[in-house]
UniProtKB/TrEMBL annotation:
Keyword presence, Disulfide bond: no
MF GO annotations: hydrolase activity
InterPro entries xrefs: Class_I_gatase-like, Peptidase_C26, PuuD-like
PROSITE patterns: GATASE_TYPE_1
Taxonomic classification: Bacteria, Pseudomonadati, Pseudomonadota, Alphaproteobacteria, Hyphomicrobiales
Keywords, sorted A to Z: Hydrolase
Protein's UniProt name: Gamma-glutamyl-gamma-aminobutyrate hydrolase family protein
Organism superkingdom: Bacteria
Pfam families, alphabetized: Peptidase_C26
Amino acid sequence: MSANPPLVAVPADVRDFEKYRWHASPDTYLKALVRVAGAVPVIVPAMIGEIDLAAVLDRVDGVLTTGSASNVHPERYGVEPSPSFEPFDRDRDALTDALIGQSLARGLPLLAICRGHQELNVAFGGTLQTEIQELDGRMDHRAITHEDQRERYATRHDVAVTPGGLLASVVGAGPIRVNSLHRQAIDRLGDGLAVEATAPDGTIEAVSVRGAKSFALGLQWHPEFWAESDAPSAAIFEAFGAACRARRDAGR
Ligand SMILES: N[C@@H](CCC(=O)NCCCC(=O)O)C(=O)O
């Protein structure tokens, strides 16, 4: 561990188990931040309204929003809720919406993964589709059923990388092979976002924030899972870590 590592805020998911309510994040994201980005994650409880988020953002050098089995509540993008959009985590929705807006306004680096990528689109006024595997011409982007997470997170399809974009500057011209564990996807792209990668069925797989003051990338896939062994996944976490170090060096 290097001296004075950058600190990265990670919004917690809220889960009920073992008779307690937990505010927690999967360790795959935390390990990729520590081991590949060279950063220290700081898990932020999903208690917006009770915590001073500005005071947290004063002290961190970047934000990473994780994937999750829960979905952004459709009311956030103007769609009537129905069971096909469940499960929800409305406390996380509220936290990530504020974190994304405030971190970008401050010029903090942002890496938004899977649910986080969908949250980024909604934060910019975009919408999501649910059960995309049931739509004409679309692939099945869901995880396979398997006990072994390495099988669930095995790479499934290529993505075409937009030439000249932020992602291309990190992973090269592509295409790159990615994993896929989602049933929702971007429908209408948020104003102010740029498409950075697409799947063969047209699914928007990566976005960046136009005119962002720092690194700001959303990815529908999961580079965290293979960040220690897959070159494009490592490059993404290394680039995010470098942006966080630059932010730290510039003064919080
Ligand atoms: N719930 C959303 C986002 C998908 C996501 O973040 N997946 C993370 C992995 C969850 C798992 O272990 O299956 C969607 O389904 O689109």
